[in-house]
Amino acid sequence: MQRPNILLIMSDEHDPAVAGCYGHPLVQTPHLDRLATGGVLFENAYCNNPICVPSRMSFLTGKYASDVNVFDNGSPLAPDVPTFAHYLEASGYETALCGRMHMIGPDRLHGFGRRLLDDKSDWVRFGKGPVRTPEARRSSNSHVTECGPGPPRWLEYDSTVTDLSQRFLRDKANNTANQPWCLVASFMYPHFPLYAPQKYLDLYPPDRIDLPLLGDELLENQHPAIRQLRYFFHNDHPLPEELTRTALASYFALVTLTDEHIGRLLSAVDTSPLQENTVVIYISDHGEMAGQHGIWQKQCFYESAVRVPLIVRSPHLSESARVNANVSLVDIMPTLLDLAETPVPEGLRGRSLLPSLRGETLPDDLVVAEYHAQGMLSAGYMAKKGNLKYNHYVGLPPQLFDLAADPNEFVNLAGHPGWAAAQSNLHQELVARLDPDEVDDRAKRNQQLEGMARSYTH
User: Do residues 118 and 108 lie in contact, with contact meaning Cβ atoms separated by under 8 Å?
Assistant: First the structure.
């Protein structure tokens, strides 16, 4: 049997809870719902770093971002680090990337054979690096206040992603060559700014939208890492209710707009011969807190920030199913190589999810996430196994949540005698994967050196 084609669709900042197929009662995502109906939906998929560049480089390489020294949104991935595109190209696949991947520096391909649309120019420059001091503070909370009807910043860009990806798919549908291909089509939405076209805003009257859980949570009642994060991003004071509802309506509208783009790509596959041999995958790079616990954006380990959508539809393998095992974006690379019948290299952090596409039970595994950027003075790490989530902060107390009993992460069980064994076990599993202090030191040295280098290039 011919090796499958692969269409991987990626969005930016999509909390899976904000989708119909993941149970949202209001948000309309008919095309994602259709994809899930014919495929495998992963209920507990996570990013490995809740910020754009490190998460995406982790996804591309199958390794933790700290393994490849990518710690923040100004860190470049070294050109000699292999990605799944390198391996697919070497095994005979044609690979193409269309749209956002937030690649920093001059290498615009990182293994892809061609790029149909590059990142926007203001995303690709070496950044200034995070300022990780107690007094550091973002200039405003425009990531929330810029919402409602207005000029959608990414509308033209995402439309171009869709147009060029559709053209690629049409060409492949009309091409009788047998060379398999992999196209990554990556959108900017639903990332802020939260301006949205009126026709999508009309779907979500603000008075019908529930306010975020603990959106007015007081700083003094929160973990010190969360207090610092909220201070940095100007989220340290509760927003007016009207603004909160408008911002949520805008986020919902952008999710539905993104779903419409996804629908156009699915149609290009499903109404052509491509449907017979094309695997379709949908993911996002991280979530969006959308006001829960008083936080907007991501940069933390609450579910809305680190959980991501993952849906896989294969014409040969999957029947409709929902998988509860913990998985993460580092699993995508071994899965793609497995689908492509390409040897999976040693040293990856993830595992192939192909057994779950065959209907087999996927064993639960430890999922690790890390964060080393703005709003957090020292490193934070998440280790999740089963329903338990352990968050380790360098220099600060830990957190432990039982998501079965406390899905909204209100009650920190760390330090409670009855949970000491569980806490210790997760800590030991985390440090078996990485050394939290060593990685924190390396991140800070890396950021200091890169900051010095950037000062000479601006």
Answer: yes
Q: Is 450 part of a structural domain of the chain?
A: no
- Report the first-to-last Cα separation within the chain, whole angstroms: 53
pLDDT at 45 over 90: yes
Q: What is the pLDDT of residue 125?
A: 59
Domain count, the chain: 1
Please check whether residue 96 is in contact with residue 148, taking contact to mean a CB–CB distance below 8 angstroms.
Answer: no
State the burial class of residue 7 (Cβ atoms within 10 Å of its Cβ: 0-12, 13-18, 19+). Answer: buried
268 part of a folded domain: yes
Apex 247 CA angle, 241 and 253, nearest 5? 135
Type of residue at 128: K
Whether the CB-CB separation of 99 and 185 falls below 8 Å is answered with yes
pLDDT in tens, 414-423: 999 999 999 9
pLDDT tens-place string over residues 15-41:
999 999 999 999 999 999 999 999 999
Could you give the 3-state DSSP secondary structure of residue 53?
A: helix
Range of the domain at 281: 5-363
Q: Which residues of 233-256 are buried (b: 16+ CB within 10 A; e: fewer)?
A: bbbbeebeeebbbbbbbbbbbbbb
The answer to whether 119 touches 102, Cβ cutoff 8 Å, is: yes
How far, in Å, are 105, 160, 161 from residue 260 at the CA level? 31, 13, 13
Contact 429, 385 (CB under 8 A): yes
Give which of 366, 213, 190 is closest to 286, Cα–Cα: 190
**Average pLDDT of the residues in 317-338:** 95
For the chain, the average pLDDT equals 94
Length, in residues, of the chain: 458
Q: Which pLDDT band, with edges at 50, 70 and 90, does 135 fall under?
A: confident
Asked if residues 11 and 284 have their Cβ atoms less than 8 Å apart, the reply is: yes
The structure tokens listed for 4 are: 């499958």
Q: Which pLDDT does position 121 carry in this prediction?
A: 74
Q: Which H or E run includes 148?
A: strand 147-149
Nearest to 107 by CA among 82, 77, 130, 85: 77
Please name the helix (run of DSSP H) or strand (run of DSSP E) that holds residue 117, with its range, or none.
Answer: strand 114-117
**Quick check: is 284 in a domain?**
yes
8 A C-beta contact, residue 208 and residue 26: yes
CATH of the domain at 29: 3.40.720.10
297 belongs to a structural domain? yes
Which among 26, 85, 94, 35 has a CA at the least distance from the CA of 61?
85
Confidence of residue 138 (pLDDT cuts 50, 70, 90): confident
